[in-house]
Write a structure and sequence with these properties.
single chain; alpha+beta; Ribosomal Protein L30, Chain: A; three-stranded antiparallel β-sheet
């Protein structure tokens, strides 16, 4: 029997490109929860619906790239 291939995990690379100064406290906390502390910092997360909601909330502050590994 052929072996089943495991589905590839989607990784999302998130970069903070705009400061959260002047935005609501909720936006600032969301940026912090994503693991972003300073401008142009990049972090990688596993793609999931809750992460997508966070990224939608702060979409004007971050740059998102999808990566498949």
């Amino acid at each position: 029997m052929p072996k089943k291939q495991e589905p590839k995990e989607k990784i999302v690379r998130v970069t903070l490109v705009r400061s959260a100064i002047g935005f609501s406290k909720r936006h600032k906390e969301t940026v912090r929860a994503l693991g972003l502390r300073r401008l142009h910092q990049t972090v990688e997360h596993v793609d999931c619906p809750s992460l997508r909601g966070m990224l939608y909330m702060v979409s004007r502050l971050v740059d998102v790239e999808e990566i498949t590994k």
